Amino acid sequence: MKRNRVFLFLARVAAVPLLSLLLVLCPAAIAHGVLYDDCDGDGLPDECPCGGCGAPPVPGGGCGCGGVGPVLLYQDQDDTIYIDDDYDQDGRGDVTDNCPYTWNQDQADSDGDGAGDACDTCPALANADQADTDHDGSGDACDEDDDNDGVADAPDVCDRVPDPPQYDTDADGLGDACDPDDDNDGVPDLADNCPLVANPGQSDGDMDLYGDACDNDSDQDHVPDSADNCPYVPNPNQSDLDGDTLGDACDFDADAAAAPAEPGSQSDDGGGGLCAAVPGNAEGARAGSLLPFAIALFWTALCKKKSRGNRDA
């Protein structure tokens, strides 16, 4: 009796959540019934039922694997999947329709390129690839200005890339807008530190990522290269001791052109200051060079004498 009471209690307690779960699952199961194929068992509807392939993708989906089989048009809010093999509803199945997304019941194809006149970017000129660079509806094969930049294709230095200025830095007939090496120095523009000035060596003295060939201040000392007496060595003060137009910062012999001292400008004929030794004062230079040794000898003698006196005392 006690066991039955426990069972009835558990049944009452479990009844509410179980009923709620069923109320949720049952409609979902009905809504997700066998409304579509799931050949691969991944729980998702097959865009192309059971391995079939469809026409190229269309708004809302599409099998997109080569042009055979049905096309998935859309899936509504109830997950019902609608499949049709005639997207434009012109009575021609998408597999055989030469304009699968444009109504053309007559299937006219004047140029015989496989694209029907109704959707052909060049209906009077065969262009199987249907290329249309500027997406203006007129295919490249019959469009006189493929990039729509206002310059006709014939004289355009970049006929597939818009470039109204028509710049061609290296004059190779290929405009800068589509030329991978605008200065023709062998270094591609993307890696060139002077893309518009030939500089195969890529030298960059100040390492500012602008090559010396196109850098107006190669050493970044705020003096333009054209006026800098040391264009590759920083020297903002532009000092030039010897006046040879080569700045001291980059002149290996900064006093090479210095003017000689004027006679009488120093206290003796030798001139040149404290340590100078010039022909006019050769004797003085020799005496001066012996002075340190004489001082050292005197100091040694004095120390010995003082040491001897201490011992005698």
Features:
elongated; about 20% helix; 2 helices; about 325 residues; single chain; two-stranded antiparallel sheet; mainly alpha
How would you describe the overall organization of this protein?
By secondary structure, the chain is an all-alpha fold. It has helices spanning 2-31, 282-312; strands at 71-75, 81-84. A hairpin with a 5-residue loop joins strand 1 (71-75) and strand 2 (81-84). It is elongated. The chain starts with a helix and ends with a helix.
Low-confidence stretches: 26-38, 49-74, 265-280
Strand order of the largest sheet: 1-2
Whole-number mean pLDDT: 73
**Share in helix:** 10-25%
Q: Number of helix segments?
A: 2
Total DSSP E strands: 2
Q: Which structural category do the helix and sheet elements fall into?
A: mainly alpha
Strand coverage percent: under 5%
The shape, in one word, is: elongated
Terminal CA distance reads: 132 Å
Compressed to H and E, one letter per element, the order equals: HEEH
Output the radius of gyration. Answer: 47 Å
Main sheet overview: 2 strands, antiparallel
